[in-house]
Design a protein that fits this description.
The protein is mainly alpha-helical. The protein has helices at 2-6, 23-37, 42-52, 58-68, 78-81. It is rod-shaped.
Length: 86
């Protein structure tokens, strides 16, 4: 107690601020915007990015789109997407 009162000890450390941005989102941002302007949904964009080797999931894609002001776009039926049927 004596050291604390004298200012020689600190019992409460200050919090260090963490990163404010995520590098993966910032690298993928231009490609996400390009794919959205082409009419793709967040799921389709996430699948395209995974095929290109960019590790950004659907949630990250949706966050980027929301930050850029794009409205939510529901996924199209598989027949309209052109994916193979099972």
């Amino acid at each position: 107690m004596r050291d604390f009162r004298a200012g020689r000890r600190e019992f409460f450390t200050t919090a260090k601020p963490g990163p404010k941005t995520t590098p993966a989102k910032e690298r993928a941002r231009p490609r996400v915007i390009e794919l959205r302007r082409a009419g793709r949904s967040a799921d389709e964009i996430a699948q395209t990015l995974a095929a290109e080797g960019i590790g950004l999931n659907r949630t990250g894609v949706a966050e980027v789109l929301a930050e850029e002001g794009f409205p939510r776009l529901w996924p199209r039926p598989p027949a309209e997407r052109g994916t193979p049927r099972r």
